[in-house]
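**User:**
Make up any protein.

**Assistant:**
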Amino acid sequence: MQELTTTRHNLHIDPSMAVWGWEIPVYLFLGGMVAGMMIISGYFLFSKRYKETNCACYTLPIISLILLSVGMFALFLDLEHKLFVWRLYTTFKIASPMSWGAWILILVYPIIIANLLIGPPQFLINKFPKISLVTTYINQRPRLIQNIGVANMLLGGLLGVYTGVLLSTMAARPLWNSSMLWVLFLVSGLSTAAAFVHMIAKNVKERELLAKADNGFLTIEIFVIALMIIGLLTSTRVHIDAAELLLSGAYAPVFWVFVVGMGIIIPLIIQLLAVNHKIKHTPIAPIMVIIGGLILRFVIVSAGQHSHWLNAHFK
């Protein structure tokens, strides 16, 4: 965040006054996608799908670590006073979304690593042979694996919710100040994660399951977007004007064409036909979902910065 100042005892961040570039939307997108992958991987562990050697739960942890680290690096690039970022991890403020996010991430990394250790890739075993001892210990305890799965789902949910709460608590930006924003980002994160895993999964049953799950997430996402817009339209004048940025304003073409049309409606139709065996499964629909999820963050972040109380009509 551009407005990052330090005091003697803590780190003060006022993100509502920031002017954000590409870094924050990328961070929110990757964070939401990793949250969705953690929930999916956790479900596979809890439901004992890890017994399948080609289970996606063995691939997702390493991908999650990479994507989350890229997202964290994007966030780091957006900080004005980068040398003081460590102060976020030396204090905890219960009323600060950034503080919650920093500490959630502290817990997320170890859980993803614990998932990784259930079935680490061969190159890690070759480089660190003692990892196999930890893997053997974990795999001899099925209850521990299920607990790791539950922890993945819980922390993945918290991470996904946080990506929306980070914005929705900013009352200075009417478009962001919606109780539905965290739901939208959580469902969108699950949808993009399901689409991604559907593309890379080697297990046919998992591909079918995730295509069906993504259809459900996309359907829910449509209703959440509708409820969010209705909530804005039934609020104050500035909230109505904020909604009009998406409905008929400067961001409407991108929102309706790339987010709703290309990112939700078209892939939903394609995947409904695929799961009903009318057409073959294709990576086109998942790619559209992922691109749509990324554009959604750019639209929400950019439009939100144009919505404020001092310029009610946003001309």
